DNA sequence: ACTTCACTTAACTCCTTCGTTAATTAACGA
DNA sequence: TCGTTAATTAACGAAGGAGTTAAGTGAAGT
């Protein structure tokens, strides 16, 4: 489980971490600010942030005693890129396009 | 961790399972066929398939003693839908669009 | 200097996941 | 019916989350 995609997907597999990302979409926030909506301890949040950072989903900076987190969505691009490979299996437009291309190919023969 | 997205993301967090999905993109396959490229036991594969099925990423059918798996990509749509919320944080076009919309809004005032 | 604030690290528990081998089920073929 | 093939279930162990409380770090405020 040492590959990037696995790290990204398992970071996203936790609802608390997804909620943290959602919060960060509204702007940077400190650890205590991020912890506020949740009923779990600060150390637990601290570790969630570590996981998100390891996945590249956030970056962190410190000023004085505050460590503020910032959303870094680039890994989501990687993840979606992987999923795109399967788009034709779910997307109606793609399915139609696929059928269209198939028809063209048959016309070729 | 009982929500759909978590189940989907953690199903995708395993490289073996992603490889299985990749294989299934080429067509249905039986358990032994799916197991073939991997250096792990059949029971292990069997459980991976169970996880994928629980996430809705595959469906299974049986004929005689063979259980064949089929890719069901719909959950990937859900997962990408969630990620799309963050697209403006990574996609250049979205960033430009965003800036454009901001400019329009400023013109309104 | 001492305290307080913001956060992390350590040590521990509980539960789940991923793998194993051995046993079981279920269907087919002779 | 008996053996073979395909796959699952059972029972187990190692490793890894995710949570806890308690202790430690480091900068700021007084």
From TrEMBL, chains A, B:
It comes from the Bacteria. This is DNA-binding transcriptional regulator, ArsR family. SMART domains: HTH_ARSR (SM00418). Keywords: DNA-binding. Residues 1-91 form the HTH arsR-type domain. It comes from Actinoplanes philippinensis. One of its GO terms (molecular function) is DNA binding. CDD domains: HTH_ARSR (cd00090). Pfam families: HTH_20 (PF12840).
